[in-house]
Amino acid sequence: MDKKILDKFLDCAPENVHEVCASMWDMTSIVPFPKFDIVCSTCGCDKQILRQVSYHTRTGSPSKLRANVSFKCTKCSKVIIFGVVVPQEVWDRMGERRGFSYHDLRHFYGYE
Ligand SMILES: [Zn+2]
pTM of the prediction? Predict the structure, then answer.
């Protein structure tokens, strides 16, 4: 793991966290989508499937609205999960729903 990136995220001020997340994640869709390529740290494959997105609130943090975004490697099956702070408008887009499965997302992202 690149400790420099981890330090940068931990040092992120709550008033800046949305700007930092939006620099790495597209927040204009129904779920956060990475603006970067995901390369599997186990096998080096760069083909990942968006597997599941679940939303939750985190108590004790000024940035309460979160999404766990998981991808699965198409070669070795490793699952990679990102915990993304989401802005209120992304949260509101979900309505009463708090998650999407691969089956929900495959139509949207054209995996078929
Ligand atoms: Zn892999």
Answer: 0.81
